Amino acid sequence: MSATMARTLAREVVTAVRVRDAYAHEVLSAALEESKLSERDRGFATMLAYGTISCRGTLDEAVVRYLSPGRELEPMVGDALAVSAYELLFSGKAAHAAVSEGVELVKAIRPAAAGLANAVLRKLAADAPTFPWGDPLTDIEALARLHGHPTWLAQLLVDEFGHEAAAAFMEADNEPAPLYLAHASLERSFEEVLDSLNRDGADPVETAIDGCIEARVPSRAIASKALKRKDVLVCDAAAQFAVSCVPSGPGAWIVEIGAGRGTKSVLLAAMARRRGGPAFRVTAVDPHAFKLKELRDTASVLGLPEISTCVADATTDAPGLPADGSADAVLIDAPCTGLGTLRRHPDRRWKAKPEEIETLALLGSALLQRAARLVKPGGFMVYSTCTVTRAENRGVLEEFLASEAGEGFAYDTVTANVPAGWERWLGEDGMFQSLPTQGGPDGHFVARLIRKG
Questions:
Q1: Does residue 436 have a cis bond before it (omega within 30 degrees)?
Q2: pLDDT of residue 94
Q3: Do 420 and 335 share a structural domain?
């Protein structure tokens, strides 16, 4: 007997992500492309691979409970046991299948370890009904265990948002993320793009955000003509909301700092072009030349010559940055811990460290201080992240406004930009903070400042 192909593929993906420090979605996509699995088995393999990678720390802790003190596992054996532990603790599948198939997974790697695997998995299966081995209402470690998150992160979420919201946050982290698309085409109208996606089986639905589409059959959307033609770009709904908060009147000059591959820059330019009016300029700034090359390629395909790029560290006075006082608006995509997008990056959950929060908050502050010089009187700064910590978000804004550079700025509420149904994420201070929700957007922060004068 041998382990099923779906479980074997999942274990191979888990190993590859660990060994190569690779992105889980890239490794899994390549593995599925080469496999001959049925649609059902592809789904099962995906659940096991993503689930194991997402919950890896919890799974390793569970396996260690049944090892002799000081016993170390061969890494690939540990990968196989983690896959089986996920199946036992999180999948809701029959325990006997997880145990027997788990033993076969280990046997295929190290036959001599089959007995160990059998003993560990049988004990884990017996104890699984009492998982998370504590009361998640009173025990933070049990709460973290229940949702497969690091204890420090569970504690941070409880401290920031309360127990109920923290639990909902972590539950959403363990569900498939919705696929949102942003209308980018100048040649095809929003309705034409919807029709194209529908014909390709993506089951698209319009959302509350202007130009934002949810594809309810993500696999069909990824393979669709609309995406290949760049009629649409993949972009979370909350990230598209951030774009909508950037004032962009006729003839405006917008600077995006931390542009990356420039999805927001493209959307800003495309929306302005569809509205018509005088020339509109977007300058995308990022320290990584290869990312800006991708942006230029996308802009070329879409026919958006008004987008220019600048390879620079935007915390400095690097050559090529726009002149001080020249921008009508600056959008800052601040580097962050990305805690609002963990469900899209399962490999990130256990790599993130609490000490990164302070480091990245300092970087965000430096970008905000430098960006402030670019804004003309009466212009705007929009500060956006895909994280949820106060230190990286409101803390950065509060520190800036209390500084000498921030004296000339004031909060400008984004209330008018918030669509129906999203009001719960708008703070009394006019700043926006969404949290990951099942069937909803990721966790994003958006705040807008106006320069007095």
A1: no
A2: 87
A3: yes
- So what's the pLDDT on residue 275? 78
Amino acid at residue number 172: A
What value, to the nearest 5°, has the Cα angle with vertex 374 and ends 373 and 380? 100
The number of beta carbons lying within 10 Å of the beta carbon of residue 141 is 15
Domain count, the chain: 4
| Alpha-carbon distance values, 107 to 53, 81, 110, 170, 437 (Å) | 21, 11, 5, 34, 39
Return d(Cα 116, Cα 264) in angstroms, integer. Answer: 52
Summarised one tens digit per residue, pLDDT across range 356-376 is: 999 999 999 999 999 999 999
How much of the chain is helix, strand and coil, in % rounded to 5? 50, 15, 35
Low-confidence ranges of the chain (pLDDT < 70): 1-3, 277-279
- Separation between Cα atoms, residue 287 and residue 307, nearest integer Å: 17
Mutual angle of helices 75-89 and 5-20, in 10-degree steps: 120
Based on the fold, state whether residues 342 and 266 are members of the same structural domain: yes
Q: Are residues 326 and 342 in the same domain?
A: yes
Q: Which of 214, 216, 439, 206 is nearest to 343 (CA)?
A: 439
331, 242 contact by CB (below 8 A): yes
Q: What is the pLDDT of residue 3?
A: 61
C-alpha span between 199 and 220 (Å, rounded): 10
Measured CA to CA, the distance from residue 317 to residue 327 in angstroms comes to 16
Tell me how far apart the alpha carbons of residues 300 and 309 are, in angstroms, rounded to a whole number: 13
In this prediction, residue 1 carries a pLDDT of 42
Sign of the alpha-carbon torsion through 272, 276, 280, 286? positive
Distance CA 209, CA 430 (A): 18
Q: Same structural domain for residues 215 and 257? A: no
Beta bridge partners of 284: 256, 309
- CB half-sphere exposure, 439, CA atoms < 13 A: 3
